[in-house]
Amino acid sequence: MWQHTIKKEISFAGVGLHSGKPVKMVVKPAAANTGIRFKRVDLGKDAIVRASMRRVSDTALATTLSKDDIFVGTTEHLLAALCGLEIDNVLVELNSDELPIMDGSAGPFVQLLKKNRKEQKVSRLMMKITKEMTFRSGDTEIHIKPFDGFKVTSKVQFDHPVIQSQSYTVNVDRDSFVKEIAAARTFGFLEQVEYLRANGKALGGSLENAVVIDRDGIVNTEGLRFADEFARHKILDLVGDFALLGCPLLGHVIACRGGHTQHVAFMRMLANNPDCWELVKRSEDGQESVLDKMRMATRAAGEMVLPFLLPPVPGFHPAKIAC
After folding, report:
1. Most buried among 54, 189, 248, 310, by the most CB within 10 A?
2. For 249-278, what is each residue's pLDDT tens digit?
């Protein structure tokens, strides 16, 4: 399978969900094997942060990447759009510290990006799960098992009559991502929104870019886009966070009560257990070739392929694991 970039520059504008600041963002084509990179044009020509899980510095409310004093927040929806559309190499330029939230989903990104995919005739590396692995932390459990594709099951549970328990499963490919996942919006409870704003967060949030729930039900007059929109949005977030692995995943992920913090901890755990996976190249006719495993001790790969080969960011401590 070939890597892809985009045919031309694509511009977006909006506000940051938490900062409330106006943001202009341009997604640009990039060469094969360069991956996804973010550039803060308001900070100078060298203000670049790679989309890598070793660059995750904050997972409270959203996924923030950083390098030195360069911060890029709320990355997960654009990363989900790129991953869901199988776009591997782009440069994302923005003039603020947070990506635009758009309508709270990946839909606006997908609508423009999907028309502009460009094949690069360079093979993609994929992380193929060969053994089951389970991560547990508090009420969260994330399980992964071998599967010939990328399948995600999300299970959510909230003590609210509108949500209660929801589950959704999708075999993630370009078509299913566009039709079933991309339009699912971020959501929050009204009392939490009020608290966040009082503490300088969610300043750009509105009924135009989030599903808001109060004690009686959905505040948005248009209601939900899907009956199980909450579970679907959790899949969107997971797909976006897992893009930080640095290469596509072949396996079935089952996430119960997951979130950004747990996604990153799970990926680090996966990286530290090479007996559970192998790196493969898959040709256009479906034939696979297995590469030598790249372990922590070798540190032989560049940042594009499984960036976990470099030391982890302090503050993330793996919980229990079974493999």
Report:
1. 54
2. 999 999 999 999 999 999 999 998 999 999
Query: Rounded CA gap, 72 and 90, in Å?
Result: 15
* Amino acid, res. 106: A
Across the beta sheet with 56-58, the strand order is 56-58, 64-67, 70-72
CA distance 321 to 142: 10
CATH for 64: 3.30.1700.10
Q: Which residue segment(s) compose the domain that 9 sits in?
A: 2-322
Q: How many domains does the chain have?
A: 1
Type of residue at 121: K
Half-sphere exposure (CA, 13 Å, Cβ side) for 266? Answer: 25
Residue of 18, 260, 263, 317 marked catalytic: 260
Q: For the residues 3-19, what does the mean pLDDT come to?
A: 96
Residue 4 appears among annotated catalytic residues: no
H helix or E strand, kind and range, residue 10: strand 10-15
The token duo for 289 is: 């070739």
Q: How many CB atoms lie within 10 A of CB 7?
A: 10
Two tokens at 127?
A: 């992380």
Mean pLDDT across 230-257: 97
